[in-house]
Write a structure and sequence with these properties.
The protein is an alpha+beta fold. It has 28 helices and 22 strands.
Length: 889
Amino acid sequence: MTPLRRLASVVRWLLHRNRVEQQLDDELQGFIEMSSADKVRDGVPPADARRLAILELGGIEQTKERVRTYRHGALLDDLGRDVRYAFRMFAKHPGFTLVIVLTLALGIGANTAIFTLIDALMLRWLPVRNPQELVQLKFTPADGRSPSESFSYPIVRALADQHEMFAGVAGFSGSVFDVGSPGSVSRVPGAMVTGRYYETLGLNPVIGRLLTHDDDERGAPVVAVVSYGYWERQFARSPAAVGQGLVVNGVPVTIIGVSPRGFVGANVGSIADVTIPVAALPQINPEAAPLLGPGNFWLNVLARLHTGVSIPEAEARLAAVWPQISEPVIAPHWPASRRKAMAEAVFQLSSGGTGWSYLRRMYMKPLVVLMAMVAVVLLIACANVASLLLARASARHREIAVRLAIGAGRGRIIRQLLIESALLSLIGAAFGTVLAWLSSRFLINLISTGPARVVFDLTPNWHILSFTGAVAIATGVFFGVMPALQATAAEPSSALKEDARMSGSRSRLLPSLVSAQVALSLVLLVGAGLFVRTLKNLQNLDPGFRPEGVLLVDLQARGTVLPRALLDDVERVPGVVSASVSTHTPLSGSIWSEPAVPAGQPLPERDTAFFVGAGPRFFATMQIPLLAGREFTDHDSADSPAVAVVNEKFAERYFAAQNPVGRHLSAKVRGRSRDLEVVGLVKNTNAAGLRKAPPPTVYVSYAQLTGGNFPAYPTLEIRAAGALGQVAVAVRNALQRSLPSATIDVRPLSAQVDATIVQERMMATLAGAFGLLALMLACIGLYGLLAYSVARRTKEIGIRLALGAQRRQVIAHVLRGAARLVLIGIAVGVPAAWAASRWVESMLFSLKPSDPAAIIGAIVVLTTAAQVAAYLPARRAARVDPLTALRHE
């Protein structure tokens, strides 16, 4: 409908409403006049007679209201009859109803499932007091570095002292604790939090008390708060849990309270079953004690503004206060330029009521893209249902014509048909909500990365139910209005004829809807092809090392220095080919960078290379090719000259085409200036990320970092031959015998590599599923149109066969009609797919949006499926008996 016609319809409705009101006024005035005349005849003065007549009516406005109420009641009765009639029609045609409901359930369910994930990750309020008052803090240094959401512990404490701005400031960081006595240790997710964490969030304990500022002081007793779920699982909700001891990382900790039910931490997507004050870090994790000092940024921050303080006002106040309080909380060992940039940093505040999560930055665009894809799926479902309803309306043309002929208004029938559409949509939405809830666990598994499981509360809330309801109503109107208008467009006299057929406009509309479904399906299939090819490209990428057959072993023997002979014990395990140790494993997400340049050059203030501490046989175990020189050996000990191995990228940047072996580097290693002799050159690796270019990397001797022994948290790399699972069990058993109190985690390196492409795997899986769903719906629409067309053309097909047409000619004729619709859809869909794919270009890897393989593959799949869908009605048409068809007609 054009804007001019829409405006005209609104004007007509307003005029109609005014006419109704005027008619009501005229009727009431006429009644008053007649009543007044009767009273005057009875001897009542004319002025009093009119007043009495009005009083008898109860007032004109009150009478109008009663009339309106009566009319509304009648309208409700009409609506009730329409609903009951709709359900009778559904029961009369259960197969037709089931197909529509399932189609809508799939379309609406897909939308609800993706929106549920968006709601859980980005929109759902934290279960705390007045979450809308919380803000999240980040800052941007003045030297052009990227904005940071992480703060050092001294900065968090300094911000918490700004009482004129903040009612509370909470710093927190997710962690994993080893809980239990030796022999019964389990890994429990938790968090290190600052003292005002619970106070800032405005929470009250179920029992006991929560952490306070005094608990977050050096030397304070180590205490912990457990979550309601952990209290329920481990202590059966016993009040005696408060005051009990809990062994965390081998350290006795006292439970002081239980957090409220439903609250599992401010880090959305993770669970914090045990929270411990940050100040207890030296006792809980001695190796991480330096994190308490300035210069170590690892805490995320939520703050609660004072009442009446707005976000712009708080930012202005921080800009004025920060230069005054920054001096003691900036790392003193930083270069002067970096200290100055930090002192001039700009703070940004944003809404923090939904908590914090690193997953938002990772999945924001993928979820928006998936939301657009499921919206297209819903459009295809609507077009499919509209086609079915148009066909159904043609079958009901006599019923509608009779109702029009005996006086039913067109609007009354349109309302009836729209109510049927709305009910179908609501029923489909109900089933779609169930489908979305059932698929929620599958969605969570798709975005979980490695050992860090993602946990969301996907319970339907008013956000989700409102969204689903709105989508259901909009969908019902969208697919119902055209069939309703078309069904009532024909004149009753022509519709009542026995040989009535579809109107020309309706016959053109059905093929148009099918071609539109084909075009939309092609868009989704091309997108699915691009994401699947992106995943394959990343899986086939050579990262510079071979992850197959490698096991990673994380040892956590707190308070223990592990002997170098531990590697010898591991190498004696059957199936172990070689073993080594390192500070960082490829694609773990952990990065260590330092400044390093050729000797004689001034050491820069910025970091220039990635660093990795590696033990003997590291490159052989990881199968990183050695291009020149040698790798580390047992002779590269703490007492020998410091050595290093560099990769190709570092050599290209600093030594051009020359061999770097034998050269010396000036570097700062863990805060100490070192002179390193380059003893080897190795191939580049994508250890920092498969999508990232290999960075300049310097490998240093692990023994020269640690004094010859292993610290309490080494990671071992083991190359195994044979069944990896059996070797993993044998390695774990061997290590457990030597270290009975240690926590040992053995996992394949390939799983760690796969965890880095979880986003691409999610997009390929879901985009492929939605593409196949769209293809199925489009094929159903094509099949339905052709089956309907064949049924209506039975007489024509019978005549063709009677005149000598071959059955294969009839099949070819039907298939040509289907091919014409598909070609029209492809002609529209190809440019639409190209335009849409440019929107996701940044998410692709090693291919362009116009990738021929993805486009041609989508066209081939679509045309093949369409021809299969068209063949069934075509074969049915070829089996028509000419005599039977003509006798029936």
